[in-house]
Structures are given as C-alpha cells and as structure tokens.
C-alpha cells in the first residue's frame, strides 16, 4: 500500500460479523443484511447474526477492500503504515491505536448483565487474565437506536428502590428482613455514601445467592406474577421479569433486573454508558460506538464466564434514570450524538431523494456506514455507495454525499470537542 502523505482519502472496508446466540435470525437481522452486502457472503437463514464490527480491534478486524493479498491487509496494519491518516491530534493522544470501535447490534434476546472496567481496572485484569480480558482499555459506549430498542441501564432511584423492596417479597427472602427494613428506612437526606453502600450490599447479596436458592425464589416469583397478572395489569418491569425468566431460567440476573432502570429508546434516541455502570441490552437494533475495547465483566443472564465478585465491587452504584440523547442538529439532514467521552461521537444522516450534504473536513478520522439506499460520496473522485458499504475517511477529508433515491448513513468519529480543545 502506498504512503498517503496526509492527502484526503476515502477507502472501502470489508468488516466482521459475530454470531452470538442472542442475535436475530437470518435475513430478519440488519446485521445479516449489512454483512451480506459488505462481505458479499451468503446469509444462513437459520443462523443468528448479532454484531457487525467496524474498526481495528483484533477480535473482529476490518480489512481494506482491494488491499494487498486480495483484501488481507487489515485496517490496523494499513493505519500503522500510513499514520498521517489519523491526524496530529489523534496521533498525539492515542498513537496509531485507533480510538473507537463502531458496531451494529441485532438483539433478539437479552445480553448479559455486565459492566465495562475503567482504564486502571482494565489494565490489571488484562495483565492477570489476558485470555478472558482481551485488552487493557476502558470501554465507555453509546447505543443509538435503529428500531425500538430496550435496555437495562444503571440503578433505579432511591424511591423506586424502596418500592421494589416493599412490593417484591422474593427480594426480601434473599437479602433478609433486617436489610430490607434498612432500605425502607432510607431517606434522600441520608448520606450518599450510606445509600450507596446499602445498595451495593443488597445487589451483592442477590448476585451471590446460591443456585438452589435462586431457583426456588424465582419459581415463587414467576408463580406469583402469573397469578397476579390474572387480576391486575402487570407493570412493564414485571412483564420484563417474566420474559427474562423464559430466556434464562433459574438465572440470578432475572431477580437483579428489578434494581436496574428499564429503558425504551425510539429510533434516533441514544443511551450512553460510562465505565463501571451496569447494563444489559434486551431487544431491538442499534448502532453502537465505544472506545476500542472488548472488555466485558458479566454476572447474570448469560451462560458465559461470570466474575460476580469483580462486578459487584467495581460498580459506581449511582442511582437515577440515565440521560437519553436526542441528538443536536448539524444540518437539515444530520443529527449529532456526542456523549461525554473523547474517543467518539456519531452522526446520523438521512438524505431524501435528490439531495446533497457535506461532511466538512475535520482533524481526525471517521468511519461511515451506509444502512440504506444508495448514492455517491465524493472527495476528489466519486465513490458509489449503497447499503452495507463501510468507508474509512482520513483526517482532513471533506466529503460531499449525494443521492437520487435516498440514503441513510452513520458517521463515527473522534469527539469534535477534543479538536476544539486543541485549536
């Protein structure tokens, strides 16, 4: 591959798919359709398609289309040979380590209750257990809904915590009457640390309960909800509990879900998560962006490796409903979603028929994903694009996008706030 010498550049990528069992089956999956168009590989109609990865992470690398060896040059290798494509600010802060990982998720059933470690914890976990914790980076992330998208995220407010303990005898059975009474006697004017420690204690008691005990408790819980559902309308959270128990019978994550916020996103709304915050994606499809890491600490709703002790000790135990990002207007066709992280932001662009827009030159790299329609992306020369195309744009590249029939695309890039600070 020739040296780029800092010139404007737009190149197509061949990307990676993950087939976790929580993915949507066959052609119903947006991930499957994008992968089919991107990698030109057939879809198995009976197979789950869960994640479409775009970036440089070694667990799912992207390749430069038409690169040396029939496309076997990874984006990471190509960037290391052409570091100027990242721009001076990114190179100074992260070197040639690409700062973000871009994904599409197609979720048919709940992912694990999990959290992502901060930088210090990620470094120590990777050193101690490199086969489990694949890198030493933190993983703040954001999910931007393509369809109705549901998640558990963060701990419920103090008032909801108290109501949950008051109305869920199965939780009291696990944590004990004395601790339940402590929760019910809490007040907002009690010290934050006192509230945090009690929440941590209750959550830890639930997550570490013996398997035979949780099986018996969940049996009682499901029987009670099914019975009460004949006489009253169950709450959305109670309906979710019944659904989770069908997906993961006898799993402690079903009971602990009571303590987490149940979030429903409409298309075009986004949810972001800092390090050490508990969450579980439940259903729907989304574009996801995160720091370039695959570190996950799981503790429930999963057959995979769990590290309950680390998860319960690492969480912040902040309470309250998470902020939902609606996006800010960049131009008539583009909304920007900018969480409070340096590594990334995401633009959502929906171009109607016979329209044109410009993504101005910025001092850092971008990855573009076309999720629908077709059109052209132009730097110095035109590039025809359509559904499934993924393109890397070098720093300082101005791109004009045009369409006759309509085009729906996303751009992931380094947070523009970082470049403002370095002006």
Automatic annotation (TrEMBL):
Residues 175-260 form the Phosphomannose isomerase type I helical insertion domain. Pfam families: PMI_typeI_C, PMI_typeI_cat, PMI_typeI_hel. Zn(2+) binds at residues 114, 116, 141, 279. Its EC number is 5.3.1.8. Residues 10-155 form the Phosphomannose isomerase type I catalytic domain. Binds 1 zinc ion per subunit. The keyword Transport does not apply. Residues 337-380 form the Phosphomannose isomerase type I C-terminal domain. InterPro entries: Man6P_Isoase-1, Mannose-6-P_Isomerase, Pmannose_isomerase-type1_CS, PMI_typeI_C, PMI_typeI_cat, PMI_typeI_hel, RmlC-like_jellyroll, RmlC_Cupin_sf. It is an enzyme of class 5 (isomerase). One of its GO terms (biological process) is response to L-ascorbic acid. It catalyses: D-mannose 6-phosphate = D-fructose 6-phosphate. Its cofactor is Zn(2+). The active site is at 298. Keywords: Isomerase, Metal-binding, Zinc. SUPFAM superfamilies: RmlC-like cupins (SSF51182). One of its GO terms (cellular component) is cytosol. Pathway: Nucleotide-sugar biosynthesis; GDP-alpha-D-mannose biosynthesis; alpha-D-mannose 1-phosphate from D-fructose 6-phosphate: step 1/2. GO terms for molecular function: mannose-6-phosphate isomerase activity; zinc ion binding. Belongs to the mannose-6-phosphate isomerase type 1 family. PANTHER family: MANNOSE-6-PHOSPHATE ISOMERASE. This is Mannose-6-phosphate isomerase. It comes from Capsicum baccatum (Peruvian pepper). The lineage of its organism: Eukaryota, Viridiplantae, Streptophyta, Embryophyta, Tracheophyta.
């Amino acid at each position: 591959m020739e040296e780029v010498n800092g010139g404007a550049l737009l190149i197509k990528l061949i990307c990676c798919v993950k087939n976790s069992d929580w993915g949507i089956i066959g052609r119903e999956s947006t991930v499957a359709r994008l992968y089919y168009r991107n990698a030109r590989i057939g879809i198995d109609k009976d197979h789950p398609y869960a994640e479409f990865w775009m970036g440089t992470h070694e667990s799912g690398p992207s390749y430069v289309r038409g690169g040396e060896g029939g496309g076997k040059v990874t984006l990471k290798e190509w960037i290391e040979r052409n570091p100027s494509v990242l721009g001076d600010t990114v190179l100074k802060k992260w070197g040639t380590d690409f700062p973000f990982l871009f994904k599409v998720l197609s979720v048919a059933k709940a992912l694990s209750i999990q959290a992502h470690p901060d930088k210090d914890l990620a470094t120590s976990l990777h050193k101690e257990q490199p086969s489990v914790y694949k890198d030493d980076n933190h993983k703040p992330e954001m999910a931007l809904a393509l369809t109705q998208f549901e998640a558990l995220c963060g701990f419920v407010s103090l008032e909801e915590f108290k109501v949950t303990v008051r109305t869920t005898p199965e939780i009291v059975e696990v944590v004990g009457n004395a601790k339940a009474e402590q929760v019910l006697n809490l007040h907002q004017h009690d010290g934050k640390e006192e509230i945090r420690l009690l929440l941590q204690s209750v959550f830890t008691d639930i997550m570490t309960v013996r398997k035979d005990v949780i099986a018996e408790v969940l049996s009682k819980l499901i029987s009670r909800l099914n019975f009460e559902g004949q006489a009253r309308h169950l709450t959305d959270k109670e309906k979710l509990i019944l659904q989770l128990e069908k997906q993961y019978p006898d799993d402690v994550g079903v009971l602990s879900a009571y303590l987490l916020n149940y979030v429903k996103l409409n298309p075009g709304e986004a949810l972001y998560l800092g390090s050490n915050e508990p969450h579980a994606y439940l259903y729907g499809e989304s574009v996801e962006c995160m720091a370039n890491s695959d570190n996950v600490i799981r503790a429930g709703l999963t057959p995979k490796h769990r590290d309950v002790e680390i998860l319960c000790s690492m969480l912040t135990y902040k309470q309250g409903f998470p902020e939902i990002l609606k996006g800010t207007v960049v131009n008539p066709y583009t909304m920007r979603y900018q969480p409070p992280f340096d590594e990334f932001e995401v633009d959502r662009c929906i171009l109607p028929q016979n329209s044109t827009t410009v993504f101005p030159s910025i001092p850092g790299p971008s990855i573009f994903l076309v999720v629908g329609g077709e059109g052209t992306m132009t730097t110095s020369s035109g590039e025809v694009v359509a559904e499934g195309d993924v393109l890397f744009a070098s720093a300082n590249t101005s791109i004009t996008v045009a369409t006759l029939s309509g085009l729906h695309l996303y751009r992931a890039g380094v947070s523009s706030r970082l470049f403002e600070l370095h002006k």
